[in-house]
Specification:
The protein folds into two domains: 156 residues, 2,3-Dihydroxybiphenyl 1,2-Dioxygenase, domain 1, CATH 3.10.180; 129 residues, 2,3-Dihydroxybiphenyl 1,2-Dioxygenase, domain 1 (Roll), CATH 3.10.180. 19% of the residues lie in helices and 36% in strands. It has seven helices and 16 strands. Strands 1-4-3-2-6-7-8-5 form an eight-stranded mixed beta barrel, surrounded by four helices. Strands 10-11-12-9-13-16-15-14 form an eight-stranded mixed sheet. The longest helix is centred in the middle third of the chain and has 12 residues.
Length: 297
């Protein structure tokens, strides 16, 4: 299939991976062990160790990546440029099922892609290596916008790392802000190979149809969305969130399995303020490493 099928993951970038991890553990997420990343700078180039590392909150559908530069002397794969703008959400990945078909589609549509970008990392120190095929849009001002296919999904979606105290089970939405919204929306529509719809708040909606197993081996067929809003619409969707720079990946929406009951108890116990938002209970960016996290019932 030469189109995106689901929201695969979002990536929260920061300067300190340990601090990122502590923040998201306080929000009730269980995290995978730290993993150093490797890859090719260009198709056909040798695999090299990158300067980045991540920890992830794997959900039944999709996941949240926490990523930082841990070795400044090595290639940062663009993360240093993202952090020069601000910490927070800088990665938006849509699941694909056929990287060759999507590469051909994007090239036919005028996107200058050198080829499939490969990335790999151990799932834990001394463990097996997870591998990924990616099609990142070159020079996207929003951050790393990409299509991804997991070549070894069974290695990363490990039940050992999926017991979340907040009962999070699915990444169902991402929220972007741009001025004009149409420019970013068109870029994402081209990447996904899918049409846009009007967003009732003001802007555009990119619906992703879903496919069983598309965003993890346990994932059901689930419709997910990317919203691309005009700046004036943001307060109606994420109340109180300020815009550090534009374009801006402002937040994520995570569905819980218990109507947010566990998340409410946990946030109250941790003393983390939360705000009622149209889609659910929102943790403001200042308490979630620069990303608004909305728990949806």
């Amino acid at each position: 299939m030469s189109a995106a099928v689901a929201l695969d993951h979002v990536g929260v970038a920061g300067h300190d991976l340990d601090a990122l991890a502590l923040t998201y553990e306080r929000l009730g997420f269980a995290l995978s062990p730290m993993a150093r990343q490797s890859g090719r700078r260009a198709p056909g180039a040798p695999v090299e160790a990158f300067g980045t590392a991540n920890r992830c909150a794997f959900l039944r559908h999709g996941y949240i990546e926490l990523i930082a530069v841990v070795d400044p002397g090595r290639f940062a794969n663009g993360l240093d440029r993202f952090l020069a703008r601000h910490p927070g959400l800088h990665i938006l990945a849509l699941a694909m099922q056929d990287e060759q078909a999507n590469l051909a589609r994007l090239r036919a549509g005028g996107v200058d892609l050198p080829g499939i970008a490969h990335l790999e990392r151990p799932v834990e120190p001394g463990g097996p290596t997870a591998r990924f095929a990616r099609l990142p849009l070159p020079d996207a001002p929003e951050g790393r916008l990409q299509l991804i296919r997991h070549l070894t999904p069974e290695l990363v979606w490990n039940p050992r790392w999926m017991g979340h105290a907040n009962r999070a089970e699915a990444l169902i939405g991402a929220i972007l802000v741009a001025d004009p919204a149409a420019e970013t929306a068109a870029r994402l529509s081209r990447l996904a190979g899918l049409p846009l719809e009007p967003d009732p708040a003001g802007g555009f909606l990119l619906p992703l149809p879903g496919a069983e197993g598309a965003a993890g081996p346990f994932s059901p067929e689930l419709r997910t969305t990317v919203r691309i809003l005009e700046p004036a619409a943001l307060p109606r969707v994420l109340p109180g969130v300020t815009i550090p720079s534009l374009p801006f990946i402002a937040g994520m929406v995570v569905r819980t399995a218990d109507g947010n009951a566990a998340a409410r108890r946990l946030l109250a116990a941790e003393g983390i303020p939360a705000v009622e938002a149209p889609e659910g209970l929102m943790v403001p960016p200042e308490h979630a490493a620069g990303a608004a996290v909305v728990f949806a019932p």
